Prior knowledge:
A hairpin with a 4-residue loop joins β8 (139-146) and β9. This protein has 4 domains: 4-106, MutS, DNA mismatch repair protein, domain I; 124-260, MutS, connector domain (Nucleotidyltransferase, domain 5), CATH 3.30.420; 264-312, no CATH class; 314-447, MutS, DNA mismatch repair protein, Chain A, domain 3, CATH 1.10.1420. Helices cover 40% and strands 15% of the residues. It contains 16 helices and 12 strands. The strands form 2 sheets. Strands 3-4-2-1-5-6 form a 6-stranded mixed β-sheet, sandwiched between helices. The chain has 447 residues and is of the alpha/beta class.
Amino acid sequence: MADPLNSPLMLQYRDIKSRHQDAILFFRMGDFYEMFFDDAERAAKLLSITLTSRGDGIPLAGVPVKAAAEYLRQLVGAGLRVAICEQVEDPKQAKGIVKREVVETLTPGALLEEGWLAGARNNYLVAVSTAAGTRGGGEAGVAAVDLSTGEFLLETLPSEGLSEVLSRLAPAEVASPSDAELPLDDYVMRTPRERWEFDPALAREELARRFNLASLDGLGLGPADDPAIGAAGALLRYLSELQPGGLKHLARPTVRRSDGHLWLDEMTRRNLELVEPLRAGARGVTLLETIDATVTPMGARLLRAWLLNPLSDRERIEERLDAGTVLVDDTRGRSRLREALEGVRDIERLAGRAAAGRATPRELGALRDSFLRLPDVLESLRGLARRDDSVALTAAESAFDLLADLGQLLAAALEERPPATLAEGGAIRRGYDAELDESRDLRDGGK
DNA sequence: GATACACGTGAAACTG
DNA sequence: CAGTTTCAAGTGTATC
């Protein structure tokens, strides 16, 4: 029984590791994340950290929790999955060793961390369902989420169109039935899933439950959308494995109908240099770079998505052109609007982090400051000359949510300049919470 | 500008 | 036998 492989800790480790075979396991031990065995050897090589052992011959490599983010970024950047195993029990209360659980798995497609992602483009995790057995022909379903913004897209299309969709979304990771063959570049992470997970009937139930709907009609989903619905089901199931804590900020899915958009195959898109230069590394040559004068990350992502997704519906095209005309014709109004948008940060991603309960005080401060800019944005919209000429602009105006309640709540609760981390303290204003004030007085010696 | 140590947990080696 | 000490990674901080 002196076998080091059978110590209580190693039993716990092997139990957890057996359920995360395909990931590097970051195993929390006090103030360190430890990796053992093969994980330790791979990570030590990739991260240039010391491969050691605990005297019992078990290979070990570890990083302090405080410095873990940078190492995680490198591992995920290298195309690996990393499962984060935390202590889920107060060590003081624990008898024997402390209980541990995987609370999150990071993959290239499942990232919420701030600063790891390019602000000007979405980071999609995509599920693809393909018709079983048939090679070519049949219909494919695509479901895509951007975890950082909560965006959720569905599309059903002929199988031949898959390469077009996949190059348009440029996903970081693709989940599909293990036997499916997909037109994907080598650097895109492939995640094989069981075929039954793509079952549309199962997925309908899951979607209805998730978004609290009696039926999917409300989402504009009919029987013809089954392939995409099946993909959505598999995607949700996979996400619940990656984020066992749940994803509160996932938006209701929106359906892309190919009849409203111009078909652009991958070759065309490339040759037109819409968003990527033909010669890798060339700067300033794409259409996107040429016309991108957006102020916020939301605008940058939207413009990019629009360029990759040109409309074919005349009415909607005219609407966009009308909006453009109003803005072009009113130089002063336009610069007012730009000015108002200047202070608006990446609300989508900040809100995503807030909803996931992982926003820092400083990020909440950025959210507050952004919200407080919104009245100015709305005012500049209203102030545009001849704004009534544009259906799109008036619609945007009437749908505009100032988020005043949230802005006021954040303004009341947060200090003017909140600290970068909660641990530093001093995030919450005096006078907001009586109990907190009292605790602070006690700590500071009281009067 | 080097060098030592603590950080938190658990195993193993050591002590009485 | 039970209790105590030692040790292990990268980083920040304290001490020379």
